[in-house]
Write the structure tokens for this entry.
Amino acid sequence: MLKLSSKTNLLEQETYKYSLQDIREPNLYRDIYPYDEVPKIVFNQRRSPMDMPEKIWITDTTMRDGQQAVEPYTVKQIVDLYKLMNKLGGPNGIIRQTEFFIYSKKDREALDKCRELGLKFPEITSWIRATKEDFKLVKEMKIRETGILVSCSDYHIFKKLKMSRKEALEHYLSIVKSAFDEGIVPRCHFEDITRADFYGFVIPFIHALHDLSVEAGIPVKIRACDTMGYGIPFSETSLPRSVPGIIYGIKKYANIPSEQIEWHGHNDFYKAVSNATAAWLYGASAVNCSLLGIGERTGNIPLEAMVMEYASLRGTFDGMDPTVITEIKDYFRKEMGYNIPPMTPFVGDYFNQTRAGIHADGLLKDEEIYNIFDTGKILNRPATVTISKTSGLAGIAYWINSYYKLTGTPNEVDKKSELVIKIKEWVDAEYENERQTSITTGELIELVEKYSDLRL
């Protein structure tokens, strides 16, 4: 049957409704995932159309997936991080939701203390396994929305659950129906979607969820989970690895609107951020992240990265305060003792720091030459240099001007300044004596105070 689409204003064939394929043996896509080789990226040259939603936002899993990768957070730490996320997300709630474990007494106490703050964003949700026992916890805590684990690949259905596809689908639907019966919004976490039979299980399952949703009058949310980081952001790649194909397919063939579609990815193949961006571009309103990307194995999508992606795509932070990223970085390091890899973008010690003398010379002449953007304004972290044997006069001059806030003042120093030359002579002598480490801030302060009247 043909119909005129209100979205494209073109005549289109009515969407085919896919049926469950209840196969006897699991489809493990061994041609793509041989296990004893690197997974293959396969192309089919079928281009999914970009379909950026009118509104996009970020959701958070720091208290859930993030906690699975580190020592459990204390109640105070959870509350503090929640307040920082609210501050970062701004009044428009671009960081819209965050999910909590609810199994332990400590987790429930932290959730209650965050709710007591009365903050609108991020909305607090929960996460449960697809069991009736877990669902009782959600009802007891009166949580409006909960994530429900619905593993969708044959790896999980056959190997972990020891079920057939039909048995898994019926089990999942019974739990989701319980959520609807209690007036709770179910967020179905399609675990391992990038190894799942998209048209043989995923789409038929979503059809069944949609039918339940219509009957209950409550929306169902679909979280597409790239559990192993296998997703590929390129449009012409084949399913099940194609992020554009997955998002487009959920919208087109399951008739789920953008605001009910969410992407959750991992970074096993360094594609977490690019896959999340692709999910936005091809029709998902939400991308699920964790602070600093902390999560299972190689981690989740870094929340701070998607703050920057949002601003890049929209041309505005829409009320978000990116300087809070630096506050969050400092909190993880100082209050939680978390060791952030120094080369991590936006939060690592080296991310806007140079060691090369030729780069420092460029910074001294014009910071924009070697800094990605005005990091002082946007992140409250001015560009810095590390003083080592390669820093040269320019590096020392830049460090003094930056540390003592002399840039643009009458006291600003340059490569010809006597203070700079004396410190350079001292640094050279250190490395001639086979020093291997960088010059510390304390040593530089001592030298500046020895050879000048500068004081903080």
Observations:
- The chain has a mean pLDDT of 93.
